[in-house]
UniProtKB/TrEMBL annotation:
<keyword id="KW-0862">Zinc</keyword>
<feature type="domain" description="CENP-V/GFA">
    <location>
        <begin position="23"/>
        <end position="156"/>
    </location>
</feature>
<dbReference type="Pfam" id="PF04828">
    <property type="entry name" value="GFA"/>
</dbReference>
<dbReference type="GO" id="GO:0046872">
    <property type="term" value="F:metal ion binding"/>
</dbReference>
<dbReference type="GO" id="GO:0016846">
    <property type="term" value="F:carbon-sulfur lyase activity"/>
</dbReference>
<protein>
    <recommendedName>
        <fullName>CENP-V/GFA domain-containing protein</fullName>
    </recommendedName>
</protein>
<dbReference type="InterPro" id="IPR006913">
    <property type="entry name" value="CENP-V/GFA"/>
</dbReference>
<keyword id="KW-0479">Metal-binding</keyword>
<dbReference type="InterPro" id="IPR011057">
    <property type="entry name" value="Mss4-like_sf"/>
</dbReference>
<comment type="similarity">
    <text>Belongs to the Gfa family.</text>
</comment>
<keyword id="KW-0456">Lyase</keyword>
């Protein structure tokens, strides 16, 4: 990508004086640190799709959705690595996976308007903050590798845009 202006726009800018630092997140090695300006996401979901399982090396992905402007990198933004699973390219091509170039920790999925953060990277100060990230539903549940009988809605595809799947 020849246009590099995205590097100076949310979420890649540093927090300024007007940015309200509410929750901090970091990668495993600590090279990448970021702040959220909100204490709760727009939504929090488990995704059981094949791409999420393979890329995360886990039975599902836990993602919390935020506006890009709700996130600012304290440090490490210049050392991020990008991956577009559709084109399999390492360019900053939206939508893309964003990870630390040193330790490989997946930081977020970046879309055109939103980011999907991974709550396991957040430094919750109390149970109230943690509860704000409680999962609301499961997506792509028929592709699951484990049953999660948690009483949450389970969708065959995207939530609200596919059929509900009965809990096993």
């Amino acid at each position: 990508m020849s246009d590099q202006t995205w590097k100076t726009k949310p979420p890649y800018q540093k927090p300024d004086e007007a940015f309200n630092k509410v929750l901090q997140g970091a990668c495993h090695c600590g090279q990448v640190k970021y702040w959220l300006s909100k204490d709760s996401p727009l939504a929090s979901k488990y995704c059981h799709c094949g791409d999420c399982k393979v890329i995360h090396g886990a039975p599902f992905q836990w993602a919390a959705i935020f506006q890009k402007s709700d996130l600012a990198f304290e440090n490490g933004a210049e050392n991020l690595r990008f991956y577009n699973s559709g084109s399999k390219s390492l360019e900053h091509e939206l939508p893309c996976k964003v990870s630390c170039s040193q330790c490989g920790t997946l930081i977020m999925d970046e879309g055109r308007n939103m980011v999907l953060l991974f709550p396991t990277l957040l430094k919750f100060q109390n149970q109230i903050q943690k509860k704000n990230f409680e999962v609301q539903c499961h997506m792509f549940y028929p592709q699951r590798v484990v049953d999660l009988p948690d009483g949450k809605p389970k969708w065959a595809g995207l939530d609200g845009k596919s059929e509900l799947v009965p809990e096993s």
